[in-house]
Write a structure and sequence with these properties.
The structure holds two protein chains of two kinds. By secondary structure, chain A is mainly β. Chain A has one helix and 13 strands, in the order αβββββββββββββ. Classes of the chains: A mainly beta, B alpha/beta. At the A-B interface, loops of A face α2 of B.
């Protein structure tokens, strides 16, 4: 029942084990810098590797922006939690709940004006306590009004 | 109180049953699809090359933590049961291929054959959406059990022994218990 209600209660961009909230509209001038905060929600009981897992064989969380309209100035991930699982000898650097990623983006000087959408892609690899799932990518459209 | 006691005992029985060997009865086993995949040496390997053997077919990946817990168990099974008509085949689902697989299997000294999987073979085995996913195949390569996610070593061992027609069964606590296991004519 909860799974059926989820899209109604949280109208975001859903992909597998992680849901992206619809971000609020940004306003900026051509060539200006904007700050986008994207919020992702993990399905309870699941975790994803942080953007900097200690074990190099693990697949990190990675956010990329479509370079067509803006370039990425900086990305800020929240601090990860160190969790130990049945399958891990060492604690893993993971996210287990909401993830808010802050991006500073500089709009191109020739960016199209008017109501636009910047496209972000979040690649993640989720596991629960016994099982892992192949990497997936969730796309988020960041609405923006460009003057 | 009586109802509660009954419920408790029913749950206990169900839990015990779920922890015991869970190979399907012969009539419920479906034929495992044959496949053709490359091993570390570039050799083509088919499931049918293992005709007559009990096969543990493990889908895994280097980025999968639970998979790495099971691999040493499977190495032990390979060593212990290979002379009794048993083989482990590890099908890696790493998209990056041998570049990431080879260093891992060399470091861990995996003693069984590793194959590079693909979406076609995964699809034939039901999609393999979760890792690890392990199929135990009887000697005629019918699927006797499927395990998704990390399960206990003893559970695998019990099932392998049952499929090999061995008369001993490992207790869930790791000890060895007597069991009336009749050799199967597989």
């Amino acid at each position: 029942m909860a799974a059926l209600l989820l899209p109604v209660l949280c109208p975001g961009q859903i992909s597998g084990y992680l849901t992206a909230d619809n971000p609020p509209r940004l306003f900026a001038k051509r060539g200006g810098v904007v700050v986008s905060k994207l919020r992702f929600r993990l399905r309870p009981g699941y975790h994803v590797n942080s953007n900097a897992p200690k074990d190099p064989s693990l697949i990190p969380l990675r956010l990329t922006w479509d370079a067509g309209t803006a370039k990425t100035v900086s990305l800020e991930f929240p601090p990860p939690v160190m969790e130990r699982y049945a399958f891990s000898e060492q604690p893993l650097s993971v996210y287990t709940e909401n993830i808010v990623i802050t991006s500073r983006l500089q709009l191109n000087s020739n960016a199209p004006t008017g109501s636009q959408a910047l496209l972000a892609k979040l690649r993640y690899q989720a596991c629960n306590n016994t099982t892992c799932f192949p990497p997936k990518t969730v796309e988020v459209k960041q609405p923006i009004e460009i003057r | 109180m009586k109802h509660f006691a009954f419920l408790l005992s029913a749950v206990t029985v169900l839990l015990a049953a779920s922890c015991a060997a869970a190979v399907k009865p012969l009539k419920d086993r479906k034929q495992a699809p044959d496949f053709s995949l490359k091993d570390t040496n570039g050799q083509t390997v088919k499931l049918s090359d293992y005709k007559g053997k009990v096969v543990l077919l493990n889908f895994w990946a280097t980025w999968c933590g639970p998979c790495k817990i099971e691999i040493p168990w499977f190495m032990e099974f390979e060593q212990k049961y290979k002379d009794q008509g048993f083989a482990v085949l590890g099908v890696s689902m790493d998209a990056e291929g041998w570049e990431v697989i080879r260093p891992y299997i060399e470091r861990v000294k995996v003693n069984y054959r590793i194959l590079l999987g693909d979406d076609v073979v995964a699809g034939e085995y039901g999609g393999v959406e979760a890792l690890p996913t392990t199929f135990l195949l009887d000697r005629t390569h019918r699927i006797a059990s499927v395990h998704e996610g990390l399960v206990g070593k003893d559970r695998y061992q019990n099932e392998i022994q049952e499929l090999l027609g061995m008369g001993k069964k490992v207790a869930a606590d790791g000890g060895t218990a007597s069991a009336r296991l009749v050799p199967r004519p597989d």
